[in-house]
Amino acid sequence: MDPDIEVSREMAAAPEAVFNAISDITRMGEWSPENVSCEWIDGHDHAELGAMWLGHNRNGDKEWKTKARVIEFEPNRRFAFECMARDFVFAKWAYTVEETEGGCRVTESTQDLRPESVKQVSFEISGVEDRAAHNRAGMETTLARIAAAVEA
Questions:
Q1: Kind plus residue range of the DSSP H or E element containing 23
Q2: In the chain, what are the domains?
Q3: Among 42, 47, 76, 122, which residue has the fewest nearby CB atoms (within 10 Å)?
């Protein structure tokens, strides 16, 4: 994945604890300022390669759902997924966990795959005009909230 945005944060927690928290998508609503909740679908009940879930998202008075599929799953190291609208992949997201002396460094990255032709529709659905700035701010908040949870 060639990310458009990357945000990293040091966390004073074991890589295993951080990875387990991140890959439990049912907890993403606790951390993300845009995602409200996620639920496993299509017979899946945990993170593994190919597992799918439905994300419920909100921005102000705008609400929408996004289907996602795990595309990389390397325990305690990397968790990546693609987001789809119908069968069109419009974004890829990844979390990379690297062990450090004091715990680990977590990098969240994203790649916007939307063609210019759908950006107006995307704005109408989400209310987000500057997706890059919105995602960067959301990623910083998400990582801060994850750190607070795993360092507690």
A1: helix 15-23
A2: 5-151 (3.30.530.20)
A3: 42
